[in-house]
Amino acid sequence: MAGAVAASLGFGVSGAGAEVLTFSGNICGGGTSCSNNEVIDDSYGDIAGQLDVVYDRDVTVGGENRLRAYGSFYSDLTGVAYGGEGNTTGPAEIFLQPLSGFQVTLLGFDLGAWPNQTRNSQVTILNGAGQVLSPSTALTVDGQVHSHLSYNFTSADGIRIQWGPDNYDVGIDNVEFALSAVGPAGVPEPASWALMIAGFGMAGVALRRRSTVPAS
Ligand SMILES: [Ca+2]
Ligand SMILES: [Ca+2]
Ligand SMILES: [Ca+2]
């Protein structure tokens, strides 16, 4: 059932391929299509047992954990998520929170500006523990051609995408990420031990070789 729902939302459940949040389809009102400005379902993007996607229109205000959908007019994007209902104090956030045993890799996303106007915003990427992976970066988003940002951050704590304070006239789309299993912590498997021992042996060879190089 979860698989069928996920498939209908346009992303896969497993495998090596990237997942993309396109903010289109039946993702509002508990699984129906979105009117402009309608709240996006909390469940959109979630993958049972693997990932919870958490939306927040303003990380500096408690609660209000939602983003809203808009059909068009954010540059050349179709089906966009935005944060504010008017101006917000802080940035909006999409938190890609892997469940136990999984890690998430953020690959990129698009930003668009509403409507036909250049807009400014700031983007910060953090991991789930709040450590900054990409510091706050000022962006000018063209009103006709969207901006694409590419990343390659992986964390089992999750990835927080924050943009704002203008997250009302700057919307987000095509959030691309990949999920992968985290290896079990603790005692390595025998095969891993063999690899580690081989690795130590090679490190020893490298050290011996280096030590034979005459000092200059
Ligand atoms: Ca969710
Ligand atoms: Ca909030
Ligand atoms: Ca879209």
Layout: helices, strands, pairs:
Layout: H1 2-8, E1 19-21, E2 51-56, E3 68-70, E4 80-82, E5 92-98, E6 102-113, E7 119-127, E8 132-141, E9 147-155, E10 159-164, E11 170-181, H2 190-212
Antiparallel strand pairs: 1-11, 2-5, 3-4, 5-10, 6-9, 6-11, 7-8, 7-10
One calcium ion binds at residues 42-43, 46, 52-54.
Please mark out the parts with pLDDT under 50 across 5 or more consecutive residues, or reply none: 1-15
Which CATH class of the largest domain applies here?
A: Mainly Beta
Provide the CATH topology of the largest domain: Jelly Rolls
Q: Can you list the strand order of the major beta sheet?
A: 2-5-10-7-8
Bound molecules: calcium ion
How would you state the average pLDDT, rounded?
Answer: 86
Q: Topology as H/E string?
A: HEEEEEEEEEEEH
What characteristic shape results from the CA principal axes? Answer: globular
Helix content: 10-25%
Structural class: mainly beta
Quaternary state of this entry equals single chain
**Structure annotation, total helices:** 2
Distance between the termini: 68 Å
Strand content: 35-45%
Can you walk me through this structure?
With 216 residues, this protein is mainly β. The protein has two domains: 2-182, Jelly Rolls, CATH 2.60.120; 186-216. It is 14% helix and 37% strand. It has two helices and eleven strands, in the order αβββββββββββα. It has helices at residues 2-8, 190-212; strands at 19-21, 51-56, 68-70, 80-82, 92-98, 102-113, 119-127, 132-141, 147-155, 159-164, 170-181. The protein has a five-stranded antiparallel beta sheet with strand order 2-5-10-7-8, with no helix packed on it. The protein starts with a helix and ends with a helix. The site of one calcium ion (CA) has 6 residues, from β2.
